[in-house]
Design goal:
The structure holds two protein chains of two kinds.
Chain A lengths: L2 H18 L4 E10 L6 H11 L9 E7 L2 E4 L5 E3 L15 E5 L3 E9 L1
Parallel strand pairs in A: 1-2
Antiparallel strand pairs in A: 1-6, 3-4, 3-5
Helix pairs in contact in A: 1-2
Chain B lengths: L13 H5 L7 E9 L2 H16 L3 E6 L6 H12 L5 E5 L6 H7 L5 E3 L10 H8 L9 E5 L16 E7 L6 H4 L1 H5 L3 E5 L12 H9 L7 E3 L8 H20 L29 H5 L2
Parallel strand pairs in B: 2-5, 2-6, 3-4, 3-5, 6-7, 7-8
Helix pairs in contact in B: 2-5
Classes of the chains: A alpha+beta, B alpha/beta.
The complex binds guanosine-5'-triphosphate, magnesium ion and zinc ion (3 copies).
The site of one zinc ion has 8 residues of chain A, from loops.
Chain lengths: 114, 284
């Protein structure tokens, strides 16, 4: 259950941003998580609801956006949306691909009441 | 990770950044900070400790009981005359593994923190206060037996070795893509048991690895009958040589984990290298 320790970092970042902007409270936070990030979004959300209590983010809504798994082919240069365990190019079946989306684990934005 | 140069903006999240609509009384601050940024900073710090002492660090990951400690015992037996080796153990509940390594006559330090399911860069940094890096050639970190989360945490090491024992089934790379995508080497372990199994195919396991766009070398290995030992040692030695050559050019080695943002940064040290041909690895 490392979602809890990740959440510590997440909350730390949120609290720091809120302080920086002298916010009264945090309305929402938006995180973006890809299927290849190695994090269970539901666990992250429930961990966050536990640790936000008593902080400036206590009322914050947790908005989760999933990132599609997308690869770009080095052979034919096409992009395909694929399954997390099948990262081959859909056009030419090459496995010489780069992941361009799908492993994000990002605090994308924070909405602050100022 | 930095928030000023825009390196966190990837094709995957660009639309998100652009899509913010301001609301009354509410300011939306775009952050784009990796949730692992604290760990990643610590990991880079650890890596500079390792590089300062010119010690190649290998992170061993697998399910519980796939043979990580047995691999280390056999490797140390083989190399202890020629290389200075040490081990950091992530066996959180018992001291068994640490004792097994110490019995081989090399320093081992056990990380004993709670019931964590993975090691992180901070835990490894603490361990460095108890383990002298001076004069070491090779440091192994035996991660917690777990195919799920250890792969997400950079420890500051240079190479990921993922073990897959034949009793686990050849579909594991497809079931745990996060882990196997990170492998710089996949070691199929306990191959002495293959005669007793009718449904494990090393070729299928390798195909599942390749389906993750990972063409890391695959070695079939058994610590019971010594199969694959020479190829494994050859791989290790080649990794040490390559790492030392990178250091001479003021570069370092990164394990195979591409995280968001990093894709846009060129990592000159992160070149691929195949010490043994795929053919040689697979004939058996
Ligand atoms: N037949 C066979 N058994 C092995 C081999 N390697 C390890 N084992 C056995 O598998 C069991 C687990 O081996 P360990 O080396 O302790 O595995 P581990 O991955 O270090 O286990 P944890 O640290 O608990 O995750 C032990 O009973 C070993 O004797 C092998 O190559 N062949
Ligand atoms: Mg062990
Ligand atoms: Zn974990
Ligand atoms: Zn293609
Ligand atoms: Zn330090």
């Amino acid at each position: 259950m490392h979602e809890l320790s990740l959440c510590d970092d997440l909350l730390g970042q949120v609290v720091a941003i809120a302080a920086q902007h002298k916010a009264e409270s945090v309305e929402s936070i938006t995180v973006k998580i890809g299927a290849l990030a190695g994090v269970e979004p539901m666990l992250l959300e429930s961990a966050f609801s536990l640790i936000k209590v008593g902080t400036v983010a206590e009322q914050a809504q947790f908005i989760m956006q999933t990132a599609p798994v997308i690869v770009r082919c080095r052979k034919c240069d096409s992009q395909s949306e694929v399954a997390a365990n099948y990262l081959l190019c859909s056009a030419c079946q090459s496995n010489d691909t780069t992941l361009i989306s799908g492993d994000e684990l990002i605090l994308a934005s924070v909405a602050l009441c100022v | 990770m930095c928030n000023t140069c825009g390196c966190n903006i990837t094709p995957g999240n660009r639309s998100l950044v652009m899509a913010e609509k301001p609301k009354k009384g509410v300011t939306t601050v775009s952050v784009l900070q990796n949730l692992l940024s604290q760990n990643n900073h610590q990991a880079e710090h650890n890596r500079s400790h390792f590089d300062e002492h010119k010690v190649l660090v290998i992170n061993l990951m697998s399910s519980p009981g796939s043979g990580k400690t047995a691999l280390l015992e056999a490797t140390i037996k083989r190399l202890r005359e020629s290389l200075k080796i040490a081990v950091i153990e992530g066996d959180l509940e018992t001291e068994n593994d640490t004792k097994r390594i110490q019995a081989q006559g090399v320093p081992a330090y056990q990380i004993t923190t709670g019931t964590a399911c993975h090691l992180d860069a901070h835990l490894v940094h603490n361990a460095l206060h108890h383990l002298a890096l001076e004069g070491l050639d090779l440091l192994f970190i035996e991660n917690v037996g777990n195919l799920v989360c250890p792969a997400s945490f950079d420890l500051g090491h240079h190479r990921n070795v993922v073990l897959l024992s034949v009793t686990e089934g050849d579909d594991k790379p497809a079931k745990y893509p996060v882990m196997f995508r990170a492998a710089d080497l996949m070691l199929i372990s306990k191959t002495d048991l293959l005669p007793f199994l009718d449904d494990f195919s090393s070729q299928k396991a390798e195909q599942n690895l390749h389906n993750l766009a990972n063409d890391a070398p695959v070695i079939e290995f058994s610590s019971k009958d010594g199969k694959g030992m020479d190829i494994w040692i050859t791989w290790l030695q080649a990794e040490i040589d390559q790492y030392q050559a990178l250091l001479l050019n003021q570069q370092t080695q990164h394990p195979k984990v591409q995280q968001d943002g990093e894709l846009l940064h060129v990592q000159p040290g992160n070149t691929k290298f195949y010490p043994v041909s795929h053919k040689a690895v697979h004939t058996s």
